[in-house]
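Design request, tokens follow.
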């Protein structure tokens, strides 16, 4: 096997590890399996030269450079941009067969399997779609076997080699839910073939990923809730208790109190806030409840519209399920960040730095307006 490809485009993808968008919202263990097709490059010229050194001429050489392969993996996501991942890989078996002059045959195959440990950098594109790259270390075993007839007689029919080397990869990932996702990936493994040659084996695969997110336990009844980490914006509800009905009531929730940053799934603290609000609605007859999600000016128009709409729908779903309000009486919508609470010039900068995200926290909110009578 011999590698004739450049790794530079793949390695460039790992620059996302240093991204300033890192946040502590996506911590957790994960695992999964990928399956696909492996491809080795067998160096026929080197085989011919080796035969010539033994006084033989290669009449014809036939290679089988493809096989089915799989990877079983597990890892820990430190934040939305960086993870460490390890696993077991089986790249399959590759073979070659040559006929020679003087008359004879020579065939050989190699089977490759081993373990890997990778650093994985991820760049989210949307709330559910991301691109990732990896750079890792492998400890692989190559098991070679040979056979020959006529003048292609082979005295040593098998060899085995264990060696460590590097691997790189680049892929795309889509999250169906917070726990389940899929990935497609191209990887390159640097391999020692057991007889002194080094080459590349490429793996193109499809996989499923299951994540176990870190979640802080809900505080015991009567106990004070723990303070959030200093790096994250302090979760707060801007207004919790609506004024007496029947006057139209507008209640504003901080989006960061209901959702993790960039997410649209109501977190446990947010469920507590909405449960208290839902309790205030008991016994009232509603003409209409309007739920409107708002974003900040950092993200694009399309991203804000999708995220704020999904957040408004999540609040609507919670109120329908937990307050018994008919869905037809709740209207949900989202905005693109065009209705900020912060004043012009109050938050400096245009790129998503940690300071700017914290400063624009009041703009990320969910407004709930209730019209009804007791």
């Amino acid at each position: 096997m011999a590698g004739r490809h450049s790794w530079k485009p793949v390695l460039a993808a790992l620059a996302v590890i240093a991204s300033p968008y890192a946040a502590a919202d996506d911590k957790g263990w994960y695992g999964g399996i990928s399956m696909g097709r492996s491809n080795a490059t067998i160096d026929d010229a080197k085989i011919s030269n080796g035969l010539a050194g033994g006084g033989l001429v290669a009449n014809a050489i036939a290679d089988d450079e493809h096989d089915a392969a799989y990877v079983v993996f597990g890892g820990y996501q430190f934040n939305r941009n960086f993870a460490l991942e390890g696993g077991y890989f089986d790249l399959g078996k590759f073979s070659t067969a040559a006929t020679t002059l003087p008359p004879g045959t020579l065939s050989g195959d190699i089977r490759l399997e081993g373990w890997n440990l990778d650093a994985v950098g991820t760049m989210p594109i949307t709330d559910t779609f991301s691109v990732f790259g990896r750079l890792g270390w492998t400890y692989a075993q190559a098991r070679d076997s040979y056979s020959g007839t006529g003048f292609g007689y082979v005295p040593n029919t098998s060899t085995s080699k264990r060696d460590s080397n590097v691997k790189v990869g680049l892929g795309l990932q889509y999250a169906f839910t917070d726990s389940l996702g899929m990935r497609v990936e191209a990887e390159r493994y640097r391999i020692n073939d057991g007889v002194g040659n080094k080459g590349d084996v490429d793996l193109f695969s499809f996989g499923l990923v299951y994540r176990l997110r870190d979640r802080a336990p809900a505080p015991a009844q009567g106990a004070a809730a723990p303070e959030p980490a200093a790096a994250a914006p302090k979760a707060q509800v801007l207004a919790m208790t609506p004024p007496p009905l029947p006057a139209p009531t507008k209640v504003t929730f901080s989006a960061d109190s209901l959702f993790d940053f960039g997410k649209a799934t109501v977190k446990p603290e947010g469920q507590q806030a909405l449960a208290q609000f839902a309790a205030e609605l008991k016994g009232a007859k509603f003409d209409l409840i309007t739920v409107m999600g708002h974003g900040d000016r950092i993200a694009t128009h399309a991203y804000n519209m999708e995220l704020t709409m999904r957040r408004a729908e999540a609040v609507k779903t919670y109120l329908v399920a937990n307050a018994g309000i008919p869905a037809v009486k709740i209207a949900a919508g989202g905005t693109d960040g065009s209705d900020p609470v912060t004043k012009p010039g109050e938050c400096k900068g245009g790129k998503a730095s940690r300071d700017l995200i914290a400063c624009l926290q009041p703009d990320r909110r969910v407004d709930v307006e209730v019209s009804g009578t007791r």
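Comment from the thread starter after seeing the answer: thanks! Helices lie at 8-12, 44-53, 255-258, 268-280, 301-323, 354-359.
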